[in-house]
Design a protein that fits this description.
Strand content: 25-35%
Shape: globular
Number of strands: 5
Distance between the termini: 24 Å
Structural class: alpha+beta
Strand order of the largest sheet: 1-2-3-4-5
Number of helices: 4
């Protein structure tokens, strides 16, 4: 099952708001368009069911994106080998830039 298929599961739609699922699909489409080599994230709704969390862990890199109930998102990146490298944001351009740096071919 692909990540896109997983987003379309009825069980997920029963837990998360439609705006959150649509924003997740749009974000995944943008990520794939920017670099088709980016691996699918580990993902799931929070226990509260108010957002979807997408996580990528690759070597020293940790990248977390939270898609909120209203369809907006926040992201956090850190390099586990460099304590001063943690950054966060809400913009798509920097999110894509960071993921592309992590998943260079």
């Amino acid at each position: 099952m692909t990540f896109q298929d997983w987003l379309n599961l009825e069980s997920l739609k029963a837990v998360l708001p439609a705006e959150c699922i649509q924003a997740s699909e749009d974000l995944w489409d943008a990520i794939q368009a920017s670099n088709p080599n980016i691996l699918e994230p580990q993902a799931g709704p929070t226990a509260e069911g108010d957002m979807l969390e997408m996580v990528w862990d690759r070597e020293e890199h940790h990248f977390d994106v939270d898609i909120l109930a209203d369809g907006t998102f926040e992201w956090f990146y850190c390099n586990r080998h460099s304590a001063d490298s943690a950054i966060c944001g809400q913009d798509l351009e920097t999110l894509l830039q960071r993921l592309n740096e992590i998943f260079r071919v």
